[in-house]
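Progress narrative, Year 2. Work on Protein-L-isoaspartate O-methyltransferase from Cellulomonas shaoxiangyii advanced from sequence curation to structure prediction during this period.
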Amino acid sequence: MAGRTPDDPDPARAADVAAAMRALDRAAFLPPDQRPHAHEDRPLPLGHGSTSSQPSTVAAMLRLLAVPAGARVLDVGAGSGWTTALLARLVGPAGEVLGVELEPAVAAWGAGNVAAAGMPWARLRPADPHVLGGPRPGGWDRVLVSAAAEALPRALVDQLAPGGVLVVPVGRTMHRVVRRPDGGVDVTTHGSYVFVPLR
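Result:
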């Protein structure tokens, strides 16, 4: 559609992202010593080698994901649960959000943060170290990955429902992957970012 830029596929959903970020204070998803820095636009440490991505990066990724109300969304590398909760705001009560986090201590803390946000259609659990993502029958409508893959992770592409969207950093470049009904994919790239490695 004319007037849209590649990094903002849907201006109305961009407004939804901004509203979700205003509604969910990052401070509630940070360790106490980092909460004074919650409104700084930079990554912040969560412990155990995990970080909370900087707000501008999170907003850019959520705009690329273009999450509709009622969507089923997988959040890979969910950390403290902030992105899981933001996704839950976007999908609303008719949707479903699953956050997975590989570091058990961070996952347990993040699960508590998500529960405290009061959106029971979202949950966060420890990731299975032998399975990337979280396969579900019928696939996910959206998959968000907050860690950098060395190559496009086919396992996550395969977890997309037809028409689903995956947003993942590959190396230092953000990728947006749309799964076609025939199983093929369309891939576009959207700027340079630095993330912890996807494990």
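The longest strand covers residues 160-170. The two ends are 37 Å apart (CA to CA).
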